[in-house]
Write a structure and sequence with these properties.
- The chain is 43% helix and 13% strand.
- The chain contains 31 helices and 25 strands.
- The longest helix is centred in the C-terminal third of the chain and has 19 residues.
- The protein has four domains: 181 residues, 3-Layer(aba) Sandwich (Rossmann fold), CATH 3.40.50; 233 residues, N-(1-d-carboxylethyl)-l-norvaline Dehydrogenase, domain 2; 190 residues, 2-enoyl-CoA Hydratase, Chain A, domain 1; 126 residues, no CATH class.
- It has 771 residues and is an alpha/beta fold.
- It is globular, with a radius of gyration of 28 Å.
Length: 771
Amino acid sequence: MSIEKVAVIGSGVMGAGIAAQIANSQTKVVLLDIVADGAAERDQLANRAIAAMKESQPAQLMDAKFAGFITPGNLEDDLEQLADCDWIIEVVLEDLEIKKALYQKIEKFRKTGAMISSNTSTLPLSILTEGMSERFCSDFLITHFFNPPRYMRLVEVITGPKANPQAVSMVTDFIDRSLGKSVVRCHDTPGFIANRIGTYWLQLAINEAVQHQIDVESADYVLGRPVGIPKTGVFGLIDLVGLDLMPHILANLGTYLDKDDPFHALAEPPALLQTMINGGYTGRKGKGGFYRLNKERKKEVISLADGTYSLAKRQIPAAAKAGIKNIRALFDHDSKEGRYAWKVISETLTYTASLVPEIADDIESVDRAMRLGYNWKYGPFELIDHIGVDWFVDRLQSENRPIPVQLRTLQGRSFYRRDNGELQFHSRNGVYTTIKRPEGVLLLSDIKRQTRPILHNRSASLWDIGDKIACLEFHSKMNSINLFTLAMINKVVKNIPKLGFQGLIIHNEAANFSVGANILMLLVIAKLRLWPLMNFILSLGQQTFQKLKYAPFPVVGAPSGLALGGGCEILLHCHAVEAHAESYIGLVEVGVGIVPGWGGCKELLGRMIADPKTAKGPMPATMQAFETIAMATVAKSARDARKLHFLKFDDGIVMNRERLLAAAKKRALQLAENYKARAPYTFHLAGLSGKAALQMGVNEFIRRGDATKYDAVVALALAEVLSGGETDHTEELTEKDILDLERKVIMRLVKNPQTRDRIAHMLKTGKPLRN
């Protein structure tokens, strides 16, 4: 049995998000909700949710047309649609009676073997199934998604003692492979893993900040980057998820947790929280929260003392600066911020240590849940290892604080260790257990623990991943491409056959594939007016990527996250790509006042000309490529990248990032069997007449105020490349001709101070300058 059709009941934020992600897997989904009072349209709530999906930012749908996989309905007229669904997901209010009444209705219509799950974030399964039939209990589980469902990788799964193992496996496999999520199995306890720990951490951080007069910005700084927590910190995170959710989660946990649980020792939420909610300050979805934007779009922050707003100071506390280099330095810092950070983190970690095995079988599940559900860099037990187990225990003892058994029995050791290249965790029985990956999961990090790189420099390394396939990994800052990167690519292309490999994958496990060329290098060269060196680097990049394209073996790109500028150009020169669904690919060079210069213009133009859907003639492909590059368009998903020609339509898309490298390896092996390099592009372009036509469009943008004068300078340089320079459509141009034009116009642009200003502004702010 497989999952061919899903029903989602409840079209609120979470229900709609889950339905959208199911549609992203191109699976049919029925979205049902109540009939709204006085509604002229009985499916109004579901229809509104679907309409909102198409417009949402960040986008819920990977492609707007995927909304066609969703059928709207209501709970009065359309329950019979459940009869052919293989999985029914309940996403309604966290009210036990409402949920149970809904389950009784579902039971009348669902087919034998269809699974039912609840997206509850706090209610235990034993309570949800109490008094329900044997049939219901065998097909029921909890599948707790995190918001937003498209982007958050965690799904917590809880099953009861009567659950059908085969049916549960069917659902979890669908969540993994089709929805792209990492499944963490949890015990049936209130709040499960991530929210049990996360809510404790958030509430403690708020209470301690109020009690010790720590301002919101300082709290977020010290509880952010230094301890491996996203830069939102605590208060920024609450703004993101919504202040109004906190009271409900706290109330449910307070109701269902044992009376002796340390959670109850936390004070009630400060009165300010309810005052903000009552006033509509529920976070980013409301008028603002702990942070807000004023009428001038400047960031303001609330005072925890009196509830007034003032401009954000954005001053990093000394304790946070100390902690960036050494987390112990943060905890030892003689300041109220340092003492605050130690109190919140140490209490959270000791609380977590006391919860295993109550909430999960092992510490690895707990760490994975916090990394994926709250975006922590380190899970709680990994963080203790990072701090130092003995140091942590000694400090707790010096403060006469209780030490959980998990910590008392571990002194002199760590929660994780490497043994013969395998990663192991300390298990409940006192021995170390090797972490086992699901079938079909291949991680570069595992390979790196077991072997040494074949080739290596400061920015890139080559790894043997088995079956005569090698993997080239970038590891510079943000995986930017510099001279060391280019040198490694050249060395790899030259040596792959000599080393006995039959294929190459370009892949890394960083947050982003590559943000493109190291623009600091370009700025320094431009300021020093080292024009021959600039031309050399442009030529080197072009030659390097051409060698990738025409390598005597298949090259497969395997990106995830951002692949911008030069990162996109690498993918354009690969023979094939297996892309993570959440790949954001684009040629964004105009934002720093240049054009793609390592073959990006040439490759995108060639793909558009070759596309049978593109109208024939010298201008249609040129205009299409011009619009994409001039607007610095970045694909919002791998699906979107196909439409923009950054990916070919036969390139693969992988929903689960942990399965990406295995998919790329399989593709490389397939290509290697009968490998043949691609034929080079030839071009018949419109030349000066084409450039003139594009200039008319640019002039109109300037007239309307949608472009600056320097935008026009950059755009016309791009038009010169894409129209073929001083030519006409009767003349055949080669790839080298287009590459020469790329270099020519970039050398002209970098001599303009406006381009150097754009590069400097991007380096300083991370945002483009419109000068």
